[in-house]
Each structure stands twice: as C-alpha cells, then as structure tokens.
Amino acid sequence: xxxxxxxxxxxxxxxxxxxxxxxxxxxxxxxxxxxxxxxxxxxxxxxxxxxxxxxxxxxxxxxxxxxxxxxxxxxxxxxxxxxxxxxxxxxxxxxxxxxxxxxxxxxxxxxxxxxxxxxxxxxxxxxxxxxxxxxxxxxxxxxxxxxxxxxxxxxxxxxxxxxxxxxxxxxxxxxxxxxxxxxxxxxxxxxxxxxxxxxxxxxxxxxxxxxxxxxxxxxxxxxxxxxxxxxxxxxxxxxxxxxxxxxxxxxxxxxxxxxxxxxxxxxxxxxxxxxxxxxxxxxxxxxxxxxxxxxxxxxxxxxxxxxxxxxxxxxxxxxxxxxxxxxxxxxxxxxxxxxxxxxxxxxxxxxxxxxxxxxxxxxxxxxxxxxxxxxxxxxxxxxxxxxxxxxxxxxxxxxxxxxxxxxxxxxxxxxxxxxxxxxxxxxxxxxxxxxxxxxxxxxxxxxxxxxxxxxxxxxxxxxxxxxxxxxxxxxxxxxxxxxxxxxxxxxxxxxxxxxxxxxxxxxxxxxxxxxxxxxxxxxxxxxxxxxxxxxxxxxxxxxxxxxxxxxxxxxxxxxxxxxxxxxxxxxxxxxxxxxxxxxxxxxxxxxxxxxxxxxxxxxxxxxxxxxxxxxxxxxxxxxxxxxxxxxxxxxxxxxxxxxxxxxxxxxxxxxxxxxxxxxxxxxxxxxxxxxxxxxxxxxxxxxxxxxxxxxxxxxxxxxxxxxxxxxxxxxxxxx
Length: 719
Description:
With about 725 residues, the protein is of the alpha/beta class.
C-alpha cells in the first residue's frame, strides 16, 4: 500500500486497498479447487468417519419398540362441545393433556417400577460380545446389596439355570438358580438375588446395579413417549423402547393396566367414601327407628285405642311431607357446600328453601298444640316414627345406589390396543448413523482445510508484492505433478545421487515451464561477465534449494559452466560426491578443486555444505569467501549460491555484498506484506545489487485442475 503525503494530508491508494482485500478473499471456484487439492485429506476424514459410523452402529445396543393405544371418554367435556369447531380454532386444551401427565406421574409409574423390577439392572460386560451383538441376558426380579458397598458387584453365568454372584473383592458370595431367590451373608449383612430369566454362554459376566424407585420412575417417564393422536380426539398413544422386545411389551402393558386401574379407583373414590359413611351411620338410624316404634306401641298399649280425626291425620301427613322435603334439601346443601362456598347462589337458594319449609313446619306444630293432649302425644310419637323411618329408608336407597355405582364404574379411559411383542429392531439406525458420521467428519475435514487456508493468509498477488516493495516478481512456480520425483525427494536427501533436477527429469511439467521463465528473466538481469547469483528464502521450507538447483541446471543446459554452491552450512541439502564442502574450504582444510563435484547434468558442478566445526558466520568473515568466488569465476561462467533463510541467520547478510543478483523465494500465501518489507529493508542496507522475487508453491485452482505439491526444502543436520 502506498501513501503520498502532500500539504499535510495522507492519501491512500484505493486500488492498493482493494487488491489487498482481494488477495485475502476466496471465491467459490477457489474454494472448490482448494477442496479438490486436499482431496486426500478429505478422503482420510471420510474413511475415519465411516469407521466411526460402523463402530457406533455396532456398539449401540439394539432396541425394540412397543406401543399401546388408549381411548379417553371426553363426553364430560361440555365446554369443548359447546365451543365446537371454534374451540379447535382457539386451541383449547384437550382433556388428553391432563391424562398424558397422569400416565407419566409417579403415582402410576411407581407401581410399574415395583411390578417390573425396574430398580434392578444386570448389564452385560464384554467389548467383543457387545460389538458382535452376542451379549447374554439376565432379568433380575429382586436384588438386595449392602448400602455401604453397592458398587462393583457382578454376576456370572454358570450354565442355563445357574449363576454366581461375585462381590467387589472378586469372591463368589452365592450361587443361585433361575426363578428361586438366593441369599447369603456378606460382611455381617445379607445379600440376596432372584433372576427370572437367564440366557448366554457360560462365563458371561453382568454388572449389577440397584437404583432408588424415584430414579427408576424418573428414568421410565423420560423413556415413555406419550402423545394424543390427532387434534381433540381423546386417543392417546403410548410407546416404549427396550433392549428386549418382550420386556418392552410387558412394561408398557403394566403402565396401561396400572393407569386404567387407578383411573377407575379415582372415579369411584368419592362414592366409596360416601358409602362407607352411610354404612357406619345406618345402625344408629335403625336403633332410633326401633326406639321410636317401641315408644309408640307402649303408649298405645297403656291408653288403649285413640280416635284420630281426619284433620289430625291430614296434619300428620303434611308434617311427614315437610320433614322429607327438609331432609332432601339438607342432603343437597351438603353436596353443594363440598363444591361451592356458602356465598354461592346455589347454596343460598337451598338455604332459603330450608328456612321456608322450617317456617311452615313450625306453624303446623303450633296448630297441633290446640288438639287434645292424647291426640298431641300420639301425633308426636307417630311423627317421630315417620321421620326415623323416612331417614332409614332414604339411607338404604342411597347405599344401594352407591353399591351399584361402585360395581359399574369403568373409568374415563379404556385400552383400545394392548402392547404386543415386536421383534423388528428400531434402534440403532445403522445407515443413518453411518451417513451422519461420514458427513460430520467430512465437514470437520472441510473446516480444517479452510482453517489452514486462513492461517496461511499471506500475500498471493504478484502485483501487490511489486507495488508494496518496488521489486519485480520474476516467476510464479506451481507445485510439480511429478509423483515419482516427489517420492524420491521425500524418502531421502533431496538432491542425492541419481535424482535429476525437475527441468531435466520432467521438462514438460508446468513447474519446469515456470522455471524456464525465471531463467530467462535472470539471464537478462545478470549482466556481469561471470555473475554470482544468490538464491535465498525469507524462512525455511519455501523451496529455495529447489529453485537454485533447477536454475543451475537451466544455465548448464544453455551451454554455460555452472557451479552450484550450498552455502547453507547449517542444514545443507545439495548432494555432493565429496565429503569436503564449503565449510572445509573456508576453514582452509580443502581446496576448490577438492570440493567441486560433478553432477549427472552436463556442465553443472556442485560444492556441498560440508561439515562445519566452527560457526558459519565466523567462517564467512574475512577474505577467504571473496577469494573463493574470485577463483570460481575463473573456472565457471555462472555461480549460484544456495544460502540460508535471510530472516533466520546472519550468514546471508555476510554473503550479500559479494553477489551480482539476489533472488528471494516466497511461499505462496505464507508471507504478509509487512514481513516482506521488513526483509527487503535489511537487504537494501547491505547491498545495492539487483534483486527479484520468486513465488513458489503456487496453487492453480479452478475448473482445469490443480498442481499436486510436495515439500522442496528438507534438512539434514550435520554432526
């Protein structure tokens, strides 16, 4: 990015800013190309995902589902019927919602837990048996373990009917038979176990466990799937999954039966309480009736017959009717007060009616006082007998009605379909697990690829580099497609004997074409008679040795005698037939002729790095290195120096003043503009010789394919 300061203002080039943003952006075509380039990595993720999917599909224990259907009687839902279709539009709560919660309540499920022994568990143990789905089965009906040591207990199959119970210490505590409860003493306590069903090979082990009824009921509630079928239908579907199909059927039928039984009991509870109260009161009422009848009989026996006038009999009959009406209203008021408060209009109406009837009865009794004493006494006794008899008869009728109600109560729910055993496996869905696992791992691979791409968010645009530094980019070298050469470089020292440079081995490779373009630019730039060309990188791993060797080979092919010097005495990679190298020459232990080694490329010679006993910076100080270059110019037309990374060591800074042209190899997308500018600032302070950039490892992505890559810069430490 360029900044021009004029009249105290700063103007930023919009074009430079746009190019900087574009260099860091990635298009859809580039993204697809990047994924295609990393297809081997993505394939590894897909394979791992498939392996994990297959493993999980076999690791998850098979599950079998069973379902039942219940029908709720909604005839009492008067509000819903009154609203009709409008109620559905207003999304009124269905009566089934309350029943669904009742099914999942502890009041229902606690009984199911007790009936089905859901507090006890025997889980098979064995990795291979679980993977191959060959685990045994042990249904525990009862299990008593010491409270202080409930963990670590196991059971082992002896044969088809016998099993052993093993303590946490590994000792056999008891041996039991299927269907018979067995018990034994353990550390001053009693342990017992009863097994209903046993299946498996001898030696199969099971991990025993005991949980509280509360936790078992909560777990069962979480596993039950209860929902209303349709809208306002009153049809409730209940389903449950278990590892064994017969257990799923049994547990679900227990839930249906317990819920049905409790529904009936809840509806008949009020009638049961009323019936019990009336039956307890009936003997007292009968005793009062017998007592009043005896009093009337005794009185008549004492005074003889009494002539009752028609008016007296009419008065007696009217008094009996008033007492019956009062008795009936009292019962209605008692029922109303259980539902409403005393201020409710219904209760107030009944109270007013009672007051009116009692007033009439009081007037009637006042009129009776005008009758003769004998008739008054007989009337009083007959009134008492009539009242007690009416009360007794009413209680008998009520008791009979309540008994009929209790006997005929069927509840508001009935079972339409009981659960049946279904042997078709519902879980795991192996194909779904496999697809999800592969998709998940593929997405992880894609995210990793783009994360690596973001971490390497360096400069990729040659124009941006030239604009930022003012230094030309001579070539953009793509990664080679040559798999054979890539394999040879990866399996040993990069430039070992028999390994030809890429431009000689694969001249039609796109990377070879880019290297020839670089050679042309260098040939025009290196105007000295015997030019010394330095090839360096900003950091390690950018491929500067690859560039220097192939550039030397191209000069040799053009007919010039070339000397390639491995000046990286710390981690040299250029192969030489001699052990002596640059380090021995600078140390005075070898001459130029002793260190020069011929290569398989005609006109091309190399000097290896050698084995430095002193620090490379100490060896490069003094006059020996310039004298070496002066002597080499007499024997070779071109000298190419493969130097260490400029940002890592000071060796390159000592070599820079001696060269005629310096090439700096950049890794595509790895270096930021600030890093490049910082390195070039250091170079400008040390040398005024021409310099240029080479961008290596360029990625060509798009519909026409890509260039497969390999690392060019490998290291071999010297002893």
